[in-house]
Amino acid sequence: MSAERARVTVFDTTLRDGEQSPGCSMNKQEKLRLAQQLDRLGVDVIEAGFPIASEGDFEGVRAIAALVQRPAIAGLARACRLDIERAWEALKDAAHPRIHVFLATSDIHLQYKLRITRDQCVAQARDAVRLARSLCDDVEFSPEDATRTDPDFLYRVSEAVIEAGATTLNIPDTVGYTVPVEFGNLIRTLRERVKGIEKVTISAHCHNDLGMAVANALAAVEAGARQVECTINGIGERAGNASLEEIVMAMRTRPDRYPYETGVVSEQIFAASQMLSEITGVAVQPNKAIIGRNAFAHEAGIHQDGMLKNPLTYEIMTPRSVGVPDSKLVLGKHSGRHALGIRCEQLGYQFDRRALDDVYRRFVRLADKIKHVEDHHLLELIRDTHKPAASATPLIEPPPAAKAADAHSLTVSVPEPEPQKPFPVAPATNPFGAPLPAHADPHQEQTQQEDYLWGV
Ligand code: KIV
Ligand code: ZN
Q: Which residue of 3, 28, 244, 354 has the fewest C-beta atoms within 10 A of its own C-beta?
């Protein structure tokens, strides 16, 4: 059965697009921790950051590239020499590096943001991909704002970058504007009209401004895309990106409609989600599909009755299948170390003997005061016992993967912001070193290229 299913590459951009969303920035240690969890989760590609954006981003990408060996590690770059070389510098020690180059292609962006013509856009995209390919075998190109780009022009840019050596063509719905039927048709027409398209993997990168990111990504897959770009908890610019857990579980729960495979170990989803909330301090909405606190809660009497008779009555997937621990084990003052250890493991923490003793002592004191020690009490207690000491050898192996289901009740430490280096100043040339036309104002040109750094 599984041999018949097409394999879809899962490209996780939690550490890049996700990290760009308000309140979600992470420091290097936090990114490393999350990257290791993404590795356990089984994603194929980790987009680790935007190396030109800051020294902190650069160091984060470099550290992940050096440490995380199984998945491909991608770094984002605008279509210019400075960005691409910086991305490569950060990625070059990776076992599987990928440079991800993007350039906007819609008339709105060309006219108002980049102030370049369509011809200049094609040339810049092609040159950028060529340069990236001279450094790295794995190059992804994204025509930013693809869904608001004139389709004929999108085909033209796509052909140019494929000819220049792109290996993945990512189609971003940058502003979350498209709808499933339309997006599916766009992918289909790209496959029909673009010369050389069979040489690349087509990818979908969907934003959630109209709440359709996951539906759009799935429509793209049905139309032939074989990579989806997504984030844990759906974090990302504005309304966020397509959520990894929703895409993966839609495929797993409805193989009749979505006969595709991913490498994701779905039992690691909850731990990844909790870790992200813990690191960023951004709670998951309670009714969020798959990983929200209420996703497997049954309150109504009729539902509870059905659940007791047979969980299939109201559950289309088991909590266990996404790593939500069974809450059948009630922890109170009579519970022993062993039960406590098991519960901690289910919540993503593995302690050595001494560390477990520490947690146990505190647990007993707490259990004396309150009847039942719930997961969120336990997680709070664990974090109190083992306040992160970045320099010390972690007592916890692998790194903590969970936080209370009720994130509001927890104390979360806010990382010190990393100092941001000013954006490097480029010489008075176009992004590839060619002199600017005589009439061009080099300052203005540079400002335009810089201005869109934060708008991705
Ligand atoms: O949304 C977007 O267009 C992006 C690109 C860089 C892929 O994030
Ligand atoms: Zn995006």
A: 3
